[in-house]
From TrEMBL:
It comes from Streptomyces dysideae. This is Peptidase S9. Pfam families: Peptidase_S9 (PF00326). Belongs to the AB hydrolase superfamily. Gene3D superfamilies: alpha/beta hydrolase.
Length: 280
């Protein structure tokens, strides 16, 4: 929050695919001195089109390939007239490495999403409306979106998250890393202390602490049968936003799991309606 964030030098590389509605490019951009890779779907036509930055969920960087994650959303959103920039994040695919990212609670991913928005703006491309930019994040990427909303209020116009992680980082560690005996947990606690040893630190790295800073409307999708990211996490985040007087909507999907299968079309209809209302 105290840092000046920089994002620039959005470069379109090779064409990865052409469809009847859009062209997909490999891209790179600069994020606070690191080069970040990704993909961008650009709708056919002159535009200018509103743009969305997509923040994917956790995929082991050792097996991750560029643009992986949110494939359904990438396609559907571009077919509905949105430029879609899907960031790989640092330490993924063709991006530069940041060896301290994991011990620093992956806050570098938040920097990369902020930088993606700034890079879209600085690109000054006539087919992109740089005043109409939104965010969409899934699972871990939902947490990245929460962070972005509190770190950089006013940066974007609106945001949507699917099945997001907890807004309390220590709960994510307990849910995903500690059960697997991930050695990074010991490194994190050596650097920052445990929540019992250093409660101030853990309070300060939770976006819930700064929800009063949020200025953008937020839509949260969550399935009641999600056993990866419990819906109680989204209920608590929604309550915190509401208590602060923020524009937040939680849509619950009875029986839906973490991956959104049978009710994905309905959730995307709601997402498109939400984005159209705030970005058109």
């Amino acid at each position: 929050m105290q840092r000046e964030h920089r994002g620039s030098d959005l470069r379109l590389g090779a064409v990865r695919a052409r469809t009847d509605a859009y062209t997909q490019y490999a891209v790179t951009y600069e994020s606070n001195g690191l080069t970040i890779s990704g993909i961008m779907n650009v709708p056919d036509g002159d535009g200018p089109f509103p743009a969305l930055v997509l923040a994917h969920g956790y995929i082991d960087p050792a097996v991750y390939t560029t643009g992986r994650g949110l494939a359904r959303e990438q396609d559907l959103l571009a077919r509905n007239g949105y430029v879609v920039l899907h960031t790989d994040y640092r330490n993924h695919a063709g991006s530069d490495d940041d060896p301290d990212n994991d011990v620093n609670l992956r806050l570098g991913y938040t920097e990369d999403v902020i930088a993606a928005v700034l890079a879209l703006r600085s690109a000054a491309r006539p087919n992109i409306d740089d005043e109409r930019i939104g965010l969409l994040g899934r699972s871990m990427g939902g947490g990245v979106v929460y962070n972005t909303l509190v770190v950089a209020p006013g940066l974007i116009a609106t945001a949507v998250v699917f099945a997001p992680v907890s807004a309390r980082p220590e709960e994510n560690i307990d849910q995903f890393q500690r059960p697997d005996r991930d050695p990074i947990v010991g490194e994190i606690e050596a650097a920052h202390g445990t929540p019992e040893e250093n409660p101030a630190f853990w309070r300060q790295v939770s976006p819930l602490t700064y929800v009063d800073r949020v200025t953008e409307p937020l839509l949260i999708h969550h399935g009641t049968a999600d056993d990866t990211c419990p819906i109680a996490w989204s209920e608590r985040t929604t309550a915190a936003f509401e208590a602060a007087g923020k524009d937040v909507t939680l849509r619950k999907y009875r029986g839906e799991g973490h991956t959104f299968a049978p009710q994905w079309p309905a959730s995307m209809d709601a997402t498109l309606s939400f984005f159209d209302r705030h970005l058109r």
